[in-house]
Amino acid sequence: MKSLEITLVKSPIGAPEKLRKVLVGLGLRKTNSSVRRKDTPEIRGMVFKVKHLVEVVDGQETS
Questions:
Q1: In this structure, which of 11, 28, 37, 55 has its CB flanked by the most CB atoms within 10 Å?
Q2: What is the 3-state secondary structure (H, E, C) of 1-63?
Q3: How far apart are CA 4 and CA 12, in angstroms?
Q4: Which stretches are annotated as coiled coil (predicted)?
């Protein structure tokens, strides 16, 4: 299955609480922190909600 590398590039200070909870759900807590998540519709939806705060790179195939 493919994976996504998600990096928090902008601070969520001033963002609504709902968006901050989405970032925590993705595992992003500090600016410039990165996580690797499976490329699923659920993760894509979460990334779409915070697309102005994160940078996404398509990762490699994972087993």
A1: 28
A2: CEEEEEEECCCCCCCCHHHHHHHHHHCCCCCCCEEEEECCHHHHHHHHHCCCCEEEEEEEECC
A3: 20
A4: none
Please tell me whether the overall predicted TM-score, pTM, comes out greater than 0.90 for this model.
Answer: no
For the stretch 7-54, pLDDT in tens is 999 999 999 999 999 999 999 999 999 999 999 999 999 999 999 999
Burial class from Cβ neighbours inside 10 Å (0-12, 13-18, 19+) for residue 11 reads exposed
Determine contact, residues 19/53, Cβ cutoff 8 Å. yes
Whole domain around residue 9: which residue ranges? Answer: 2-61
User: Within 13 A of 47's CA, how many CA atoms are on the CB side?
Assistant: 23
Q: Give the Cα separation of 27 and 16 in Å (integer).
A: 17
